[in-house]
Write a structure and sequence with these properties.
8-stranded mixed β-sheet, alpha/beta, 39% helix
Length: 296
């Protein structure tokens, strides 16, 4: 129910160290597919600056939805999807094959950022969507990514933005402001996750400054909006149901009894006030991309 801190995929700040990525894959895929208009705008923005790249690396690719959008946006580029989960990379390869890009699509399994050292040659564009924040030393990770860029290559990091919203502040039952309180719990969980990562280093999350510290220049940022107003499509509604179900499973015990009861009612398909039926469900999200260039 929030702003996605798991893989590329907006997975709702549901942080933990032992995700079953194969089990989560359908949710990750459906969410990334729903967010495709946002990603397409971000990639088209990148395409104005990164012309005719030879190699594009998607670091923390998950099931490859964005990787395949890169293949579509840059038809002359080779794409390498990098992830620590082989089951997700298998789905990425299958997707690329279905979309006719299999002949220029590769995968690399291993832990970021060290696995990037196994790339055959430097990247012209290295994309990291909500993967850097899973690494203990984010500044060191960005420096490692920068080292894998070709001269003049671009590092693009999607981090930050705003929490996703699905519902009005007052939904007619329970205390108003449920999503804001959920976001607060998720931020606390995210902070604990970051603190418990191996080699965790606290850092001001000024992404342009971090990119500059990694030896890159021309740092800039742009935020992209996903606005799916009510009444939503069945596909968007199904995503909201899945996202709130996962929210209830992961952080339900961290909410008070009233908010748990409100979530339960929102998820009850027999309740006309649930997200299965209510006409005011929407999807509104803002994701920020930060870019910088390796000096020639």
């Amino acid at each position: 129910m929030a702003h996605d801190h798991d893989h590329q995929h907006d997975h709702k700040h549901q942080h933990g160290h032992d995700h079953d990525w194969a089990e989560l894959a359908p949710l990750l895929e459906s969410e990334a597919e729903l967010f495709t208009p946002l990603y397409e705008r971000a990639l088209n923005w990148l395409a104005k600056e990164v012309t005719e790249p030879g190699l594009i690396v998607d670091a923390g690719s998950g099931p490859g939805v964005i990787s395949c959008l890169f293949a579509e946006t840059f038809p002359g580029a080779r794409i390498v999807a990098v992830d620590g989960s082989e089951p997700l990379l298998e789905r990425a390869r299958d997707r690329a094959g279905r979309q006719g890009a299999g002949d220029r699509f590769g995968t690399l399994a291993g832990e970021l950022p060290d696995v990037l050292g196994e790339l055959d040659y430097p990247a012209d564009l290295l994309w990291a969507s909500r993967s850097v924040h899973h690494l203990g030393d984010q500044a060191a990770a960005l420096a490692a990514c920068a080292e894998r860029l070709a001269p003049g290559g671009t590092l693009a990091v999607m981090e930050g933005g705003l929490p996703v919203r699905f519902l009005p502040r007052d939904i007619g039952f329970g205390r108003p402001g449920l999503q804001a309180r959920v976001n607060g719990v998720e931020e606390e969980r995210f902070g604990r996750m970051r603190a418990e990562l191996p080699g965790s280093v606290a850092v001001v999350e000024d992404w342009p400054a971090l990119l500059t510290s990694a030896g890159l220049h021309h740092a800039r940022s742009r935020t992209f909006l996903l606005d799916l107003p009510a009444p939503v499509t069945d596909r968007a509604r199904a995503h909201v149901v899945a996202a709130l179900t996962r929210t209830r499973e992961v952080i339900g015990e961290d909410l008070d009894a009233d908010d748990r009861a409100t979530l339960d009612r929102l998820l009850d398909p027999d309740d006309k006030a649930s997200v299965h039926h209510r006409p005011d469900v929407f999807v509104l999200a803002a994701h920020t991309v930060h870019t910088a260039v390796r000096p020639v």
